[in-house]
Amino acid sequence: MLRRAEGILMLIFSGFIYYIIINGKYHLYMNPKFTLLTLTSAALMSVYGYFGITDPPESFDLKRIVPAVLFLLLAFLIQPVLINPGILGGG
Amino acid sequence: MHSSMQIFSLKAVSIVIEALPFILLGSIISALIQVYVSEDFIRRRTSKNIFKQISGGIFLGAMLPSCECGIVPIVSRMISKGVPAPMAAAYLVSSPVINPIVLVSTYIGFRSSGEMTLMRFLMNIAVAFAVGFLFSVLRNPFRAAQEKTCGCGCRHGHKNNFSEVISHGSSDFFKTLGYLIYGSFFAAAFHVLVPKSLIMSFASSQVLSILAMMIFAILLSVCSEADSFVAAAFVHFSPASLLAFVGIGPIFDLKLMLMLPVLMRKRTMMTYISVSFSVIFILSLIYSQYRGG
């Protein structure tokens, strides 16, 4: 299972991109004219993620997955604030 | 405090999303080189003349563009395939800049300034030659040992070339992504913590403005496709200092600071940074004199 961590994280990352595009939040991060480019990137990452799960690397390396985990935590944790800026009291 | 956290998060995530297509492209190119380009092919087509090697690297940079985010796995693969160090170094410097996409974005970003576009192009060529000659005299400037075997941790005996490309590509991508993420955290923190008024205080001095914009470019870590738009926003700074901003960014920034150790030993990296920084600083000063300050 641990050997599949990279593939799983890439799938979650691509899922995050699909989420912000579908929910109309892409413009908060990037100019909307780059939506198709980002969407294509997410699709390729999904392919990487799929192969990362079905054909995982020989060994698990914790150092490699730490930045991705931190990034995804940050990206998902900020989402409630973007929906409701008043949630942190600062507006 | 809370809004700073929000800005930090948005900035960090934006930097990663902006760079994502380019590191993906870099990983694919790197994997294709790994699977389809043999060492013999490289050996038969590479000149022993240093000048021709550097020129070849620059030409390759124009033909095979890459953002600085995606350049590391590509150069790493080139080295493992026997590309001479001067050629790989010239490619490392030139690829993020002297390609049609970046040159057009430079032209547009600087309000249709052909002069700034030309100066950026020429400055990059000069740095590519300087770094190329430097790498021709350094002993083993690039890390190469780990690339002799398949260092991606994948299983050997892939079913076909396609699965091998995907396997190598995803491994390179994931490794580069880690460095990009850490770099984005630093850049976002700088954006939140450093007040713009501090940056603006350097605008009046010729030398300090060039130095300040170079350091700002390193810390901000904007991709070469977008940096001219960011630079042009600094209307109080001289054209020479803006040129220095777009000159140093694609060669060295916070993201690359974390990625370059994959390619080079620390000592080589410091020499590479020093030479690039010096050449860009001197050329920017000369341009400043030419323009009359």
Give a written overview of the molecule.
The complex is a heterodimer of chains A (91) and B (293). The N and C termini of chain A lie far apart (41 Å). Helix content of chain A is 65%, strand content 0%. The longest helix of chain A has 20 residues. Chain A is built from four helices and no strands. Chain A is globular. In chain B, helix 1 packs parallel to helix 4 and helix 10 packs across helix 14. The chains are: A mainly alpha (91), B mainly alpha (293). At the A-B interface, helix 1, helix 2 and helix 3 of A face helix 1 and helix 8 of B.
The gist of it:
The complex is a heterodimer of chains A (91) and B (293). Chain A is mostly helical and 91 residues long.
In terms of structural class, how would the helical and strand content of chain B be classed?
mainly alpha
Helicity of chain B, as a percent range:
over 70%
Low-pLDDT ranges of chain A: 84-91
- Helical amount among residues of chain A, as a percent range? 55-70%
**Intertermini distance of chain A:** 41 Å
- Using the CA coordinates, give the radius of gyration of chain B: 19 Å
Secondary structure class of chain A reads mainly alpha
Global shape of chain A: globular
